[in-house]
Write a structure and sequence with these properties.
Four copies of one chain form a homotetramer.
Chain A (H helix, E strand, L loop, with lengths): L1 E6 L3 H4 L1 H6 L4 H9 L5 E6 L9 H5 L3 E5 L9 H12 L3 E5 L6 H7 L6 E13 L13 E11 L9 E8 L4 E10 L2 E6 L12 H14 L10 E2 L10
Parallel strand pairs in A: 1-2, 1-3, 3-4, 4-9
Antiparallel strand pairs in A: 5-6, 5-7, 7-8, 8-9
Helix pairs in contact in A: 5-6
């Protein structure tokens, strides 16, 4: 499996708090815990040419992981459109945290993807609500994160195909924190945690979920579809 | 309820076969069978200014019915975007037949919305697969249409929230012909039949479904959401 | 619409705390706020003959509301089975609170319907996660209940057809508190609140949800199905 | 993975047509094409003691495949109940063809599971409608079966979690032929084809689907749930 981890990579260069936590960028941290088995893991970032997402990179990516926040608007429309098309053609997509507002995710969802939020060190407890789901393999009944940004309902997404995690926040809110969506031949997993000012991506259970999510999103060879004008398969001539 | 029936209104002016069937346009035919009860039904067409879909018209529309085919590209992007936003804000949308390829529907679905098709006078039999659904009120177990254009799977849409009708076609194909989708505060119903060269919109059961669909799609006052930065509802100060 | 409110009616006779809150039984309280419009509302209780659910009562019930808790086992199997069959045949069912463990609900779900619980005066905040749903008509973004029994995930139900409410509890849990399920021609709405030691059914928003739920569950005439050996609808003789 | 293939094994002993096709029983045919990789495949049949499904066999089965037809009633209630509980506890279940009417499947669905049927050598064409699903790996856009028993809608099941295949039948019907359901910690796949008088289980694509289905249904270690009275995870003492 070929994995590409995409990161906006701005907070880490501009905010010392974030630099301390992720000195080589969130993408490098994520790439490291995704390595292993037969995975080839590469990274790409906003300020590279074509945001590091050339046709060749996309064609050779089985699953793309996406982290973005403050610079969604700087992602070129044509790149966002190419990524979306590649998902429809079978590439898996794991969208993390503030990636809910990325051009790619909004295009795939068709909704505003808006939500409530607060940066106030809320405790988060993420409950498994689908204990059949391979994304929950190896977890307990919930994941607890000591401090995180709050995301609250209403989360303006289509009803997910599968709802995997629900979050409880100390300040009184709930959130659909893990959700899957099929689009074309591609599988999309949205996973909430990962605000840049917290060391969330070092949390073992969070890592486990992303490892599982990438594995789940990988399309190993389902049917390709033919569209357009189509000859009858049965005789309809004698009407 | 305020209903607006939108039609591209081109085939009827250019193809005598279609003119004979719908002399005053498909929109007029549909508007007529939607009248009654307390409904106010208006129409709008592509060649009117702003395609007949001004801010005022949209603000005063509870449910929009959409028929388009050969001129999807002529619908201005800003109008398509406004219609989409109005759906997310609570307007119902009933998309008919070749409207599957309209800008509005594709934006709301996030997929290509592509399919197989054939104009060969196939017989269509549309089976009810959800006999709890209010859209099926008053129907029998299936609707039979003597001749129609074939639409076949794979239909590249997200898994519908509710699958209501499945079509059988004489030439050997099947199709998810009636499907509902929630987007934001808006309800969307896609309904397959209605190729312009057949008198499908005079079929009593087809009319019944569209009447039911409009009624179902009408949002009578569900909660408005507040998004963005949000104060805690519980005390989190003593951490 | 003919509504029957069924109640176990035991706590109210045995526990003075409950008697004080619901002196004439939970069923009477619920029946009162369901009256109005063209509704005919009746009640039935466990200790009546056939638990008040004779064939005639069931045949004349469009929507059944169910509250039970400590005496689920005393409901006769044949009555539970008859109620289930009537749901499959089109009767709506609104299952409240501890009714999650009733024979009828478990038969319709096929799962254990188990959950976590605690009686400790938790505050509950029930968030609307589906703001298109008619069951949420007239509500705000959430319903707050000062003190309630806690119900927590994992709730062992099939993935609901529609998830309407999610609860936050003070003690750290979440719960899928409002969920819809279609079974046969019947519509089922599970709604969490209503522990007998709290005055929950006097809460205006809780009443509104149950009123909306009953209206939603009413099947106004969808297709009846024919099953079994079936003649071909198309000629298959010349193979 | 430990697989057990269960078969009623009656038609093969009583009807020479079936004996000719499956001389060692349908279970043996299925077991043979499921062998390989690290799978251990065993069989069990109705006339064995406890129908071959002792506690030990069930405890050591990861995925159970079920074929039954004329003797559903002879399956003991307590065995059916044990199998159901084992599914809720994580065992995968692949239900084939007339197994739709088995006690186990009906208990898990909560509906009648009724349908239309006809034995008239209809041609069946099973279309893939979910080209992301691992159960469709290695297939084309449809599977064609020259002659099969017809199963037609309405199929009285809950709306599936995932709809994978839709069948077209020569006589004019359609059917939801491949559908998945999650129940408790168990995954259930219903797959339509396989009437005993046709050599359907020698069809390479049918075999591929069952191989994929077994692999999909295998639960490799998702969370076990704790139910019942539960201590608060957050401090609620100072209210």
């Amino acid at each position: 499996m070929n994995i590409t981890v995409w990161n906006e990579y701005r907070h880490e260069k501009e905010n010392p708090v974030v630099t301390d936590i992720y000195p080589e960028g969130i993408h490098t941290c994520i790439a490291e815990f995704l390595e292993g088995d037969d995975h080839v893991v590469k990274t790409a970032t906003l300020d590279e040419e074509e945001h590091g997402l050339t046709d060749e990179v996309l064609a050779n990516t089985d699953v793309l992981v996406w982290w973005g926040h403050k610079a969604h608007d700087e992602v070129k429309d044509e790149v966002a459109e190419k990524v979306k098309q590649r998902v429809l053609d079978g590439m898996g997509l794991v969208v993390l945290h503030s990636g809910h507002f990325s051009k790619v995710f909004k295009k795939l969802m068709g909704t505003s993807c808006d939500l409530k939020w607060r940066e106030a060190d809320d405790r988060e407890r993420m409950w498994v609500v689908d204990p059949t789901h391979p994304i929950t393999e190896g977890l307990g009944e919930y994941i607890e994160i000591e401090k995180e940004e709050m995301y609250g309902e209403h989360f303006d997404i289509p009803a997910p195909d599968e709802l995997v995690f629900l979050s409880w926040f100390e300040g009184g809110e709930v959130f659909r924190s893990g959700a899957t969506f099929k689009r074309g031949r591609g599988k999309v997993f949205y996973f909430r945690p990962g605000h840049e000012t917290y060391p969330t991506y070092y949390h073992k259970d969070v890592q486990k979920v992303i490892q599982n999510g990438v594995k789940w999103a990988n399309n190993e060879g389902t049917p390709k579809n033919v569209y357009g004008n189509s000859q009858p398969l049965e005789d309809i001539s004698e009407k």
